[in-house]
Specification:
This protein has 11 helices and 29 strands. The protein is an alpha/beta fold and 665 residues long. It has 3 domains: 85 residues; 357 residues, Rossmann fold (3-Layer(aba) Sandwich); 153 residues, no CATH class.
């Protein structure tokens, strides 16, 4: 197998980003570091967002016929009239008919709409970011463990209306049998089937009397890469879904679901699950809304519109995928720091006075614009891949979670990250609302928080500029505990509460399953035999990431940390988490052994320079590359009290990290 040097891989990464970004990057110099993300580099010249001056007329069309023109948002039920809400009406979207061939004349025709017809015009931003093997042997145990840790097994009330839970993600839009659609990305498909397992007692299709919620799918990340003879191009796939998206597409997706719900049945409560996000560098943290990029502002306005209608919005706080360090929550989860709109603000946004029953009974209720969700391990500690300074008040188990897929006996992907936590929090909200449909949205979330287990640490993301007290600690959410508290405080519920088991802080027992995993042909690495020079220094984790020259190896001993993962490239908005190259790899503390088997779904995949990271200590494995389906046994591992372990590797598209499943004695 061909092995690329670190500099060759860097050149390949730069070449790929140059092909896919309209802003070309400079050539590799003799001294190179992964450049910081620049918001402008995310811009795409084939899709633009405009802000219309006169909203009583259709979105203005540029001269010529090479731009497809539409309102970004679709009509919804507004005060008994079907129309685009007042605050959303000015947003227009311009998509070029040939994204690979945008000419200077095309751009000039578009620019000519300012300032008479459009007050603002900006490029959209491709910056939204959403596995006979070891996996086959352990997935059933992991699936059962996930349901137990989430506090599932909730009985639906056949006489109560189901909540409407929409997974706004990579899967195609489907309101009936969304869980069947595997699509181009496993992310949305996995979340849909996890929701079915949590809300339907493991049966049903996510719609029916046996489920606490109608589970639907709304496509918000429709783009995928299409391979060409000369490289790749980005295409929109509405039939089978995508792999990533743009900020404007996220706005379009979530507002489209709200509009659909408002026209279908306004009595059903709606929970929007946003297991996606974009890095703060692309916008969202501005003090004034008018200072946000147009595409980001569109998402903000769409969420305000949803909250004014009484909708709950839960978003992933985000993961650290590897590469240069990141900090702070993704957006829109970061908007938990902003308050939800009040009745007066909603009247102005919607163009009519909404139902007062949607709003909290007093200003003392904690009511953020968005509820963020962060993930925890079995013992309540943060996930190995949690972003720094991104812990949310609401946390949920999200470590190596998996569910049975649409085909009986087959698993979904194995996911570790805040998107799983978001799904658990969204499902818990759906359960509470199903049994007590008269509750307001923020009252539902208060039950989730108050019933949660106190993890003894303060959240980094919380609403403070309000008369309501911010959540003082991070709480771990349980579907069962939240439902029981709601029934006890605001009930009674028609279906009596069932006892909830306290979550077990020990990892799943995989001893039987691991005996079925045969590693006869596995390579073996013994860390205890490594010399001092082979054990990387602790400052490896400091990520001072330089290359000295084109001829030398990296000065930093961690080449896997030098290159930004695609999920943090400036043209990406992806699911959270992304694909896991080592989906089930268990590290057994009692035997000091790691069983490593790489994902084999893509036979051409290659991962370079694997590094084992145990908190602040890092170790090379002495293996230059791993191919799809490779197996490796690593022995002589000493955790030394560390509860966060992961593998980090380099690919031809950047760095990727994979959290490990830690099995304690």
């Amino acid at each position: 197998m061909l092995t690329h040097s670190p500099l060759q891989r860097l050149a390949l990464t730069v070449a790929l980003l140059t092909m896919l970004s309209p802003t070309a990057r400079g050539a590799v110099s003799s001294v190179t570091v992964e450049a910081p993300v620049v918001a402008g580099d995310a811009a795409i010249d084939w899709q633009w967002i405009g802000l219309q001056n006169e909203t009583s007329t259709p979105c203005p069309k540029p001269s010529g016929s090479r731009w497809l023109v539409a309102n970004l948002f679709v009509p919804a039920l507004n005060g008994g009239v079907t129309s685009v809400p007042a605050a959303l009406r000015p947003f227009c979207v311009y998509t070029h008919v040939s994204p690979d061939n945008v000419t200077t004349a095309d751009l000039a025709a578009l620019a000519a709409l300012k300032p008479q017809q459009l007050s603002a015009l900006e490029m959209d931003s491709l910056s939204v970011t959403p596995a006979g093997q070891l996996e086959d042997a352990v997935w059933v145990d992991l699936a059962d463990h996930f349901l137990s840790q989430a506090g599932a097994m909730i009985q639906a009330d056949p006489n109560a209306p189901p909540t409407h839970l929409a997974i706004v993600d990579t899967a195609e839009t489907d309101s009936q049998n969304a869980y069947l659609n595997q699509g181009n990305s496993p992310h949305g498909y996995t979340l849909l089937n996890m929701a079915r397992a949590l809300l339907c007692n493991g049966s049903g299709n996510g719609n029916g009397s046996d489920c606490a919620a109608d589970v639907t799918s709304r496509l918000a990340m429709p783009f995928r890469l299409q391979s060409l003879g000369t490289g790749n191009r980005v295409v929109r796939d509405l039939l089978d879904g995508g792999e990533f998206g743009s900020v404007a597409e996220a706005a379009r997706g979530l507002q489209g679901e709200v509009a659909f719900w408002s026209l279908l049945n306004h009595d059903n409560r709606l929970v929007l699950n946003l297991s996606l996000g974009w890095d703060p560098v692309f916008g969202g943290g501005e003090t004034w809304i008018t200072d946000m990029p147009l595409a980001v502002r569109a998402v903000y306005r769409a969420i305000v519109d949803a909250r004014c209608r009484g909708v709950l919005v839960v978003a992933a706080a985000g993961n650290d995928p590897g590469g240069p360090a990141v900090s702070g929550p993704l957006y829109p989860a970061g908007w938990e720091r902003r308050p939800a709109p009040d009745l007066t603000e909603c009247g102005a946004a919607l163009g009519y006075l909404p139902w007062s029953s949607h709003f909290p009974p007093s200003t003392s209720t904690y009511a953020p614009l968005v509820y963020a969700a962060s993930g925890v391990q079995v013992d309540g500690n943060p996930l190995a891949n949690q972003r720094a300074s991104a812990s949310a008040p609401l946390a949920a188990f999200a470590d190596h979670a998996v569910a049975e897929g649409a085909t009986p006996g087959s698993p979904t992907a194995v996911l570790t990250g805040s998107s799983v936590a978001t799904l658990v929090v969204s499902s818990a909200a759906a359960v509470v609302w199903h049994h007590l449909p008269s509750l307001r949205a923020d009252e539902v979330m208060d039950h989730l928080y108050q019933a949660g287990d106190d993890l003894g640490r303060s959240p980094a993301v919380a609403l403070t500029k309000t008369s309501a007290s911010p959540p003082p600690t991070v709480r771990r959410v349980s579907l069962c505990a939240a439902r029981n508290r709601a029934c006890a405080v605001d009930g009674p519920c028609s279906v009596p509460p069932s006892p909830c088991s306290s979550w077990d802080p020990t990892p799943p027992d995989l001893s039987t399953a691991l005996e079925l995993a045969v590693f006869e042909d596995a390579d073996e690495v013994d860390l205890s035999l490594k010399t001092a020079e082979q054990v990387l220094p602790s400052d490896c984790a400091s990520r001072s990431l330089w290359l000295e020259s084109e001829e030398s190896d990296p000065a930093d001993p961690c080449p896997d940390l030098q290159f930004r993962h695609l999920g943090r490239s400036p043209w990406r908005t992806e699911p959270q988490p992304g694909s896991n190259f080592c989906p089930s790899c268990p590290l057994n503390e009692s035997s000091s052994t790691l069983l490593l088997e790489t994902d084999d779904s893509d036979a051409s995949a290659v991962w370079y320079d694997p590094v084992l990271i145990l908190c602040d200590d890092s170790y090379t494995l002495g293996v230059s590359e791993l191919a799809a389906g490779d197996v490796l046994t690593v022995s002589g591992i000493s955790l030394g009290g560390c509860t966060r372990a992961w593998l980090s590797v380099t690919t031809e598209r950047g760095s990727v990290s994979s959290p490990l499943l830690i099995l304690t004695p």
